[in-house]
Design goal:
Elements: E1 3-5, E2 32-34, E3 57-61, H1 64-75, E4 80-84, H2 86-102, E5 106-111, H3 121-134, E6 141-146, H4 148-160, E7 167-171, H5 174-180, E8 185-190, E9 193-200, E10 205-209, H6 218-235, H7 237-252, H8 257-275, H9 290-299, H10 307-324, H11 330-342, H12 358-371, E11 378-383, E12 386-390, H13 395-402
Parallel strand pairs: 3-10, 4-5, 4-6, 6-7, 7-10
Antiparallel strand pairs: 1-2, 8-9, 11-12
Helix pairs in contact: 3-4, 4-5, 5-6, 5-8, 6-7, 6-8, 6-10, 7-8, 9-10, 9-12, 10-11, 10-13
Length: 423
């Protein structure tokens, strides 16, 4: 079997004569590997056994000083390349970069366009060029300082650069702290579909600074809360009840309620991700609201409708489908859509910032169906904490869910035509 030894453990092998010949000391001391592998026998194919464990800390800290201390601890003396956007750089990036520079830890800092405008394949290529230009090595670290779209982009770049360098997420939006920053799903958009170009690449650490949330406008906070509601519906009735009781206070930032939300939603995401970190099972409760939500984002051009807003609409539509199928009680359906409405989130098409054309939404769903092995899955709630994932939603059901004129009517008759968008 292979064996690794440190320079102090020679295992009977003479010491390197260069150690006593005046040679300059190496930055990385030599490590010897001793192998005695036999020739393979027979004609059978080979099996490559790979074990991989990705675990990391999600830190929730009160303010920038604590964030810097935590970041320095995670860097452990390694250089960092900081990637942010112009707005976040002005608010948080410049002082963070100055502090890292003061401690000799900053390799460079650059910015990309904010939001979905920066989450593009071309952005990734420019960032790779920049990293090569500043001489980042595999020992160094990327820091993603920004919202959900930015941490998605930087995570994808980190996985591509030199076949993978560590990266630390420092999300500055509520959506980033409770969802996008955790889980290692990294991607950039393609003109035909959201997140079409991506991978699974876990961060080295996540540092969520609660004070950063104070700089968000109400729309961004609401969009982040959509992902909190999602987690509450699929996995935590207790969190749902907390949101019902404290919704306005969470939005206003009064008391310790935002910290409660960030920690609780992060814990739900961490638990569900740990069960299936690479989405081997495509039937995932975490996709609640995302089937139609992603289609809305694609149909509106990736940007005018915030991700959380699209997910909120997608959840409301899924609730209408579940209610029409009589798998969800009317009272629970009203609680979910009622909470979304109290938080100022869209539950019907006219409430979106840009109202997509229905044919464009159906075309986007067709693209999703092609990506997801020929089927289009909807996560439908049965009760708080219980979901069912189905792949037989008909086009009629989708059109009813998209219809903003009134609540969903009775379920379509059995034998309806399957959705042309793969539904």
């Amino acid at each position: 079997m292979p064996r690794s030894t440190s320079p102090g453990d020679t295992c009977g092998v003479p010491e390197d004569p260069l150690r006593h010949a005046g040679a300059a000391p190496s930055r990385h001391p030599a490590v010897r590997h001793h192998d005695r592998l036999p020739l393979p026998q027979g004609t059978a194919g080979l099996t490559v056994r790979v074990r991989r464990e990705d675990s990391y800390r999600v830190h929730v800290v009160p303010g920038p000083a604590a964030a810097l201390r935590t970041l320095r601890g995670e860097l452990a003396g390694r250089r960092a390349a900081l990637i942010t956007d112009p707005v976040v750089h002005r608010l948080h990036g410049a002082p963070l970069a100055a502090a890292l520079r003061e401690h000799g830890l900053l390799a460079g800092v650059t910015t990309i366009a904010p939001g979905e405008r920066g989450k593009q394949f071309g952005t990734g290529g420019r960032l790779l060029d920049w990293l090569a230009g500043v001489g980042l090595t595999r020992r160094d670290v990327l820091i993603a300082l920004g919202g959900g779209a930015l941490v998605d982009t930087v995570g994808w770049v980190a996985g591509a650069y030199m076949r993978g360098v560590p990266y630390i997420n420092v999300p500055t939006t509520l959506l980033g702290q409770v969802d996008a920053g955790i889980g290692g799903k990294v991607a950039v958009n393609h003109s035909s579909a959201k997140n079409l170009i991506g991978a699974f690449y876990q961060p080295h650490a996540v540092i969520s600074c609660l004070a950063y949330l104070d700089t968000l406008d109400a729309r961004q906070l609401r969009a982040g809360l959509a992902e909190v509601v999602k987690k509450a519906v699929i996995a935590s009735p207790e969190l749902f009840a907390f949101l019902e009781e404290r919704a306005e206070e969470v939005l206003a930032g009064t008391g310790p309620h935002r910290e409660t939300v960030v920690r609780a939603a992060g814990a739900v995401k961490s638990e569900l991700i740990a069960r299936d970190p690479y989405e081997r099972d495509l039937r995932r409760p975490l996709n609640f609201g995302h089937t139609l939500g992603h289609a809305v984002e694609t149909a509106t051009g990736h940007g005018p409708v915030l991700h959380g807003e699209a997910v909120a609409f997608g959840m409301a539509a899924a609730v209408r489908i579940a209610r029409a199928r009589e798998v969800l009680a009317a009272g629970t359906a009203d609680r979910v859509t009622g909470l979304l409405g109290r938080l100022g989130l869209p539950v019907r098409l006219p409430e979106l910032a840009v109202v997509p054309e229905v044919p464009r939404v159906l075309a986007a769903l067709e693209k999703v169906r092609q990506i997801r092995d020929g089927s289009l899955r909807f996560v439908l709630p049965e009760e708080l904490g219980t979901t069912v994932i189905v792949d037989d939603v008909t086009e009629e059901e989708i059109l009813r869910a998209l219809d903003h004129a009134g609540p969903a009517g009775p379920a379509p008759a059995a034998g309806g035509v399957p959705c042309s968008a793969g539904g």
